[in-house]
Amino acid sequence: MFWGFCEALNFVQEYKKIIPAEGLLPESLNILLFGSGDPRHILAIASQLFLQPELKVNVYIAEGCIELLARHMVLLAIAFEDPQLLSVRGKTHLFMDIYGNTLIRPFSSAYLSSKAKELTNVITDQEYAQRQAPIFNYEALRYKERDQLENVFRFWTNAPEHVFNIARYWEDRLRVQLGVRYDHRNGAFDWDLQMRLRENGAKQICPQEYKHWRETGIAFTFPEYEQSDPNKTFTVGLVRNGKGFLHRGSVGDNMTGPYVGFGHECAEEKLTRSKHGVNDFRSTDITERNVLQIMYEIQERQPYCFDPKDIHQYGSHQLDTGKNLNKHDARTEPLETVHFNKPLLRCENLTVHFLSVEDVLRIHELDRFAAKFDVVFVASNYFDLLKDGFNKTWKSDCLLCFETRQLTVFSKEEIKEHTAKIKAYAQKESLAAATNFSINKTHSVLFYKQISNK
After folding, report:
1. Which of 113, 135, 367, 452 has the most crowded CB, counting CB atoms within 10 A?
2. Which residues of 169-185 are buried (b: 16+ CB within 10 A; e: fewer)?
3. pTM confidence score
4. Could you give the CA distance from residue 203 to residue 286 in angstroms, rounded to a whole number?
5. Range with lowest mean pLDDT among 226-230, 335-339, 421-425
6. Neighbouring C-beta atoms of residue 111, cutoff 10 Å
7. How many Å separate Cα 328 from the centre of its chain?
8. Around 131, how many Cα atoms within 13 Å sit in the side-chain half-sphere?
């Protein structure tokens, strides 16, 4: 729910490779992310747009939960933060903390509280939003949804009544999920990793990081950091209750993990090497390398040159993570005097449009989306939400991208069943396959192209 199960993809480059003759691009591209869960694809696109300044890209986010839209906003804000407030490395580790950890560093908690106040002003004042966050467009949101966003951001601020004991919720959910196996959970975790995730192709995930995440919900760890504060971006179902809030506790994925989006592969193949099943680099280390590149290229608008000194290398190490410091009460004391309220970095040829939650089930009925999209990405858990008439939103040469369940803990039979559904849908819609199915290779995303108007 809070992250996807395929790599971060630059859909501008994917479109260029598959659709236009001779690699030509139109003046603008409209891209629909249907339930992507996180902004990984937007960041991959944004980091490379400096190479094509003449191209205008509009990304439309459709999510079924208002809290997910808020999470998209804050994760994107980190990438576009003013460099006077955060360095590239600071952005990288802050992003990883909020993106994948149930408990976060005190600094991350202070940032989240400060940025929540800023985003409240952004979504309640159109003129302020144009000055401070020009890449965001929330005109499609209803007023009640803007009020709901305001409530989400208010809950993210640090106050005594804003309690979110995620560590307890995570443990309670784990006990219910495993039942009598809870006392032997390390064996269950190892089986899920070795017999499911790694067998399905997610070989970069290391036992020490995966087991620690399954036990605690903390995916990305480094020796120099300690996580202690609740990550409130994992909250859903917020309802006001006097000065405080009620919520649904811990929901979302707690079996696959946030590793695939940025930590599955990278440009330097030597970083993904393994000896006797032991990786030189963790998926956490690969995530650090890939997110660092994205943050650098968005900020500096020039290509990133990899330096091994930029990242950690703990693939074969068992880090002493110690006992988690679960400070479930909200932090109330001021930690940082810096307020993160400077205008976000500008990206003149990118706009991120936040669609109404209600549009998820009726996007095919709305005239404003007729023949709108050049690229459509459909997340695996949103595939069953596709309605008859969804093809009305596609342009005549649309690129369709369907996320599979390949890099997850689903069984091979479940993965094949879901892939068969995608292929049947593509056949029904007369789509031409752009993925080479003849080679003996598994795919985290299946690509098809719309070749004519219906």
Report:
1. 113
2. bbbebbeeeeeeeeeeb
3. 0.94
4. 12
5. 335-339
6. 26
7. 24
8. 8
